[in-house]
Amino acid sequence: MNDYQNALLKMIDEIINFFDNNPELLKNPVIKKHVDNLRALHKELLANKLLQEIDIKGLFTRKKEVKNELAINNYRLTGSMRSFATDNNNNFLYQEIDTSKSDMKHLPDEDLLSYTQLIINKITEYQKDLESYGINAEELVNLTAMHKLFHELLLLPAEKRKEVKVATANIKQIVTKILNLLRESIDNDMLQYQDTMPELYKKYMVLREIDDSKTIALSIKGTVTSAHEPTHVLQYVRVNVKFHPGSELSGNVKTAATTTALGNYQFKGLPEGKCTITFEKNYYQTQTIESEIHPDKATVVDVEMIKTEEQ
After folding, report:
1. Nearest CA to 72 among 130, 118, 110, 112?
2. Does pTM surpass 0.70?
3. 216-305 CATH pick, 3.40.50.10420, 2.60.40.1120, 3.40.50.300, 2.30.30.40
4. At 230, phi and psi to the nearest 5?
5. Strands 303-305 and 218-226, how do they pair?
């Protein structure tokens, strides 16, 4: 999972814990149904996360180790077999198994498998004669087992890569389902408590924020509060950025999402240069700030908005 998906997973954990710690909310059958759906998706997300984190690199390392061991073992056995072939004037057998140690190690995977099978077949064919050359039944059993292990290791990475690919696709779909469930159902379910249980509702909204600061290179960020109550953050403030002449986006306006329940806003991936940031909210005076975007760090613009008399 990427950083954003992990941040989302952390948020889901916190939301589920929130409902576990406030069981009175689950007495509402609609909320319970939606939270149960969230639990099921959460479980499915974790299962695919485990599949996605399969150590394919470790499988490749193990395959390389077994391949090297198999090549060395093959070379040792073919040395004894060439000695047997020479003593018995079996030039055909000698030519079939006349491979240097270096060539043996550098055989492609499938060729090494085929070559090892050839050695197994020849040892089986001349088994009794080869015993006096140091190749006994145990050597044949060990070589057969190593051949089987190498064959399985060749298949595993491809199978695991397929599993990882499927899990990655599943995770994207599950994340979409979770976000839709939260936005379209649970968030709306909780609105009934905005006035009757404001502290509980606020706590839920705080937990709903996804801390994905690791995943983005911020250009501008900040917090909007009330000038009359500095500790009171303002949600649903519209924030616009207008770029000055000379910028890549000169004359264009970039509109951010409204501020969150914590009064936060952020922009990412904006071009460097001077700009004007405008903050707007009903019943508050519009604030306009001149600022500048830098390529190597985020510009922090915190604002205190003043109430109008129209409220």
Report:
1. 112
2. no
3. 2.60.40.1120
4. -55, -25
5. parallel
